[in-house]
Amino acid sequence: MNNDILKVLYSKEEIQAAVERLGKEIAQTYAGKTPVVVGVLKGAIFFMTDIARAVDSYMQIDFIDVSSYHGATESSGTVELLQDINTDIDGRDVLIVEDIVDTGRTLKFLLDTFADRGASSIKVCTLLDKPAGRAVDAESDFIGFKVPNEFVVGYGLDYDEKYRNLPYIGVLKPEIYTNN
């Protein structure tokens, strides 16, 4: 796997430092509240777990699975709900935890969905923000890193369901995904 990586953007240690910083910001924001923290599967699973442990306050945890990439390197433009949350969020504070905000389509879909369900507030925590890829207006409240417009994998992010288990975030060599 490591041989497929062009360069490492963020080391395990840099990611952990960002998680600790974000955990403190989130704890301050939700002091005295119990937000529903919704992890977006599958990419955010590692980040979600680390963020949950870094936030020193009450929370409920749930997961949602949506897809817009369908195994490709670019968004299809259509967001599909694969698995919904189990928590009633009417009147609740919701924190969406994403691995990466690229086109913004998935995030916009989630923001609209949770607003329609009556969430009293919706905030977004993303490990990676890729503003160059943005196709719709969808912004995050808590950002780990701004990333260049390159195809990144690791720490939950994948290509064709591979590379999620890398402990760092790296740029995938183009020949890996252009030859398939």
Distance between the termini: 16 Å
Determine the oligomeric state from the structure.
Answer: single chain
Strand segment tally: 9
Along the chain, the helix and strand elements come as: EHEHEEEHEEEEH
Description:
- The chain is α/β, with parallel strands linked by helices and 180 residues long.
- Helix content is 25%, strand content 29%.
- It has a domain at 11-65 and 79-148: Rossmann fold.
- It contains four helices and nine strands.
- Helix 1 crosses helix 2 (45-54).
- The two termini are 16 Å apart.
Descriptive terms for the model:
4 helices; alpha/beta; 25% helix; 180 residues; Rossmann fold; six-stranded mixed sheet; three-stranded antiparallel sheet; 29% strand
Summarize the structure.
With 180 residues, the chain is an alpha/beta fold.
Structural topology:
Layout lengths: L4 E6 L1 H18 L6 E6 L3 H10 L5 E8 L12 E4 L9 E9 L3 H12 L4 E9 L12 E5 L5 E2 L15 E4 L1 H5 L2
Parallel strand pairs: 2-3, 2-5, 5-6, 6-7
Antiparallel strand pairs: 1-9, 3-4, 8-9
